[in-house]
Request: fold
Amino acid sequence: MHQSAKKGTNLEGPIAGGLAEYKKFSGWPELKEALMTRKIQAAYMLAPMVMDLADKGVPVKIVGLGHRSGAVIMVKTDSPYQTFADLKGKRIAIPSRFAVDHIFVRKIMKQYGMTTRDLDMIEMPPPDMPAALYAGAVDAYATGEPFGAVSQKGGYGRPLYMTRDHWPNYLCCVLTVRDELVQNDRPMVQKLVNHIMSAGLWLDSSPDHRTHAVEVAAGPNFFNQDPEVLKFVMRNPPDRVTYGDLRMIRQEFNELVQLSLDAGILSRPVPYEKFVDESFVRNLRSVEIALDAR
Reply:
């Protein structure tokens, strides 16, 4: 999904204000290319991918987070695997080498004294992962929700690890904008950040709000997902994914830079100021969130 400012485009909703068009992308490479080539001006991106783009001179900045936690390592329900050590020599799917889910695998792997030589890691689109687990094409998969919940709700998958338990300050998808959008329309970016931060607080303030949000987000105009799977994510357990604190914290990003270096995702350290713009969060204004389910 991306948010891009385009004059003359009329969408309902307080964020759009007649200037935004929303579009869903099917893969990270396509989204990355669209942001690099100015086809879009704002996107939810993988944090290490933004660091890499900024380091290579692409004028982009992170202005907010998308969520906290929300990643899982799934195995078959009837599998004998109880710890990560049991996956030695097995095949595990990851969404991308830039994905923080990949880094999560490496963090757990390190706890058990394992290296990448002990696993067969393959890149796979998250929507394909539940079926691959069911068919035995992989022994485990690491991904963000709702694709972990698909196999769990289906009765053939179970979480071996959740970031909520093993990486409390996990961050992954980040709201990223091109520098030109900041320079040309700061009020638009501020409005976007205000609404996203307020929506996160609204989501975490009530189970009813989460259910209401699912009814909107699952629809064909947004993510076109099974609403029952999204409700499962929101409730099992309720803090499987959280949205109430979407601030950028320097220490957490510096840790992610180091983990990305260790994983070979980045070739050199990237200074925090090169890929983060805190000004919009510092000027945050709370707004009322009003949703109409369609």
